[in-house]
């Protein structure tokens, strides 16, 4: 059986005139106008491609719920959005809600680069990488959500959480090495496909 996982990062939470900040599990912001536009654009694109989602999972945060519901609205028969702890965003510790220059001043550019390229959390960030990796592996191997997950699953999450999908499998990690970053931009998506041949990253950080 071929199973497809479409992993979406929520839309913008900052307007163009605002300086983006590191927001995680403790900062529950809604989408701004451009974020709603990104979410509706994703839904329209997926519908135009003829995709159908058997399952829609999202993190508990408002920005991911709003994104998931906007995508769901592009389909007449889409399933109900299901909250999934697996998709919860990380906690940036003392860097939570700080602008990027302040974060780099504290942790250094090398630490931030290691996070973006390899998923190595900077000091003070609360990530629990082993649990996240185990969650993705269980999802990919059908050991979790067995009654909920169909052949095509939409997962709406945040940037900090999404990267662990690529780090949860040796083949995906090899493919991820060819990517410029593990990061998903706001309003972007990745596709991971599971088949008898294993897991394949079909796309990453793609915007419609």
Explain what the structure shows.
This protein has 208 residues and is of the alpha/beta class. The chain has one domain (3-90, 128-206): Rossmann fold (3-Layer(aba) Sandwich). 35% of the residues lie in helices and 17% in strands. Helix 5 packs across helix 6 (159-167). The longest helix has 16 residues, at 33-48. It is globular and about 45 Å long. It starts with a strand and ends with a strand. The model has no long low-confidence stretch (mean pLDDT 93).
Please describe the structure with a list of short key phrases separated by commas or semicolons.
alpha/beta, Rossmann fold, 6-stranded mixed beta sheet, 7 helices, 35% helix, globular
- From the helix content, strand content and strand pairing, which structural class follows? alpha/beta
Strand content: 15-25%
How far the N terminus sits from the C terminus, by CA atoms, comes to: 27 Å
Specify the number of helices.
Answer: 7
Low-confidence stretches: none
- Summarize the biggest pleated sheet: 6 strands, mixed
- Name of the level-1 CATH class: Alpha Beta
The H/E string reads: EHEHEHHHEHHEE
State the CATH topology: Rossmann fold
CATH homologous superfamily designation: Phosphoglycerate mutase-like
| Envelope shape | globular
């Amino acid at each position: 059986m071929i199973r497809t996982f479409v992993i979406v990062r929520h839309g913008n939470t900052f307007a163009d005139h605002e300086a983006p900040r590191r927001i995680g599990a403790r900062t529950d912001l809604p989408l701004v106008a451009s974020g709603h536009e990104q979410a509706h654009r994703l839904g329209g694109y997926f519908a135009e491609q003829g995709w159908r989602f058997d399952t829609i999972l999202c993190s508990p945060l408002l920005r991911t719920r709003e994104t998931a519901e906007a995508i769901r609205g592009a389909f007449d028969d889409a399933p109900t959005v299901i909250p999934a702890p697996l998709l919860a965003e990380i906690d940036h510790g003392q860097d939570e809600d700080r602008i990027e220059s302040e974060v780099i001043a504290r942790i250094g550019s090398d630490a931030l680069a290691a996070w973006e390229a390899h998923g190595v959390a900077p000091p003070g960030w609360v990530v629990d990488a082993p649990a996240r990796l185990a969650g993705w592996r269980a999802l990919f191997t059908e050991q979790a959500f067995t009654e909920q997950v169909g052949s095509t699953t939409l997962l709406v999450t945040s940037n900090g959480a999404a990267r662990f999908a690529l780090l949860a499998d040796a083949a995906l990690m090899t493919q991820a090495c060819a990517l410029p970053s593990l990061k998903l931009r706001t309003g972007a998506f990745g596709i991971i496909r599971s088949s008898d041949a294993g897991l394949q990253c079909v796309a990453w950080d793609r915007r419609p």
